[in-house]
Design brief:
6 helices, alpha+beta, four-stranded mixed β-sheet, 4 strands
Length: 180
């Protein structure tokens, strides 16, 4: 072991030993320093903000849970591309239009952004036509899992609807390009 590492280990041990014996004298002295006081204050604000943001995400999640599965009858016709697969591999899942796809064809699967109970599977040959006649949300391509990308985009859409209004939410979601 390097000498400097051993010294750091000994210092850490000494610090832990002090705290375990309830010797807080160094902490008390540091807390008198205005810079340390400012730091603690800012950390407290950051933790409060993080807690508020987490709370807002939970609230939006509950709203989606309540309204986003079958209650919305008039959506903005925004579809998220989920995945592509050979049709025979997804035959057990109920999709609109799926019966028009041959089992050997590649199926392209989309899910309604607002009403999560609506999913469509179309043949890869019809993808360009479908995307030309529907609004497609691509979401954040940094998120590799299609399910996570869908739920993240959906969450953002509902949050934008609440904070900015539905028209702005649609614009924000659709402004992301395919390559984004």
């Amino acid at each position: 072991m390097e000498k400097d590492i051993l010294e750091m280990i000994k210092q850490d041990y000494s610090d832990m030993e002090k705290i375990s014996t309830r010797d807080y004298s160094e902490i008390v002295e540091l807390e008198k320093n205005p810079i340390v006081q400012r730091y603690r204050y800012l950390i407290g604000l950051k933790e409060s903000r993080d807690l508020i943001e987490y709370g807002k995400r939970c609230i939006v999640g509950k709203i989606i849970e309540k309204y986003g599965h079958g209650l919305i009858k008039e959506s903005n016709n925004i579809w998220c591309l989920l995945f592509e697969s050979e049709a025979k591999h997804i035959k057990d899942i109920h999709f609109e239009y799926f019966d028009k796809i041959d089992g050997e064809q590649i199926a392209v699967v989309y899910r309604d952004l607002e009403d999560g109970s609506r999913m469509i599977a179309i043949s890869k040959d019809n993808q360009e036509e479908f995307e030309a006649t529907h609004n497609i949300a691509y979401g954040n391509s940094q998120i590799s899992d299609y399910s996570d990308r869908y739920y993240n985009t959906r969450h953002n859409f509902f949050e934008y609807c609440i904070t900015d209004g539905q028209d702005v939410a649609v614009q924000k979601i659709l402004s992301r390009s395919k390559n984004n």
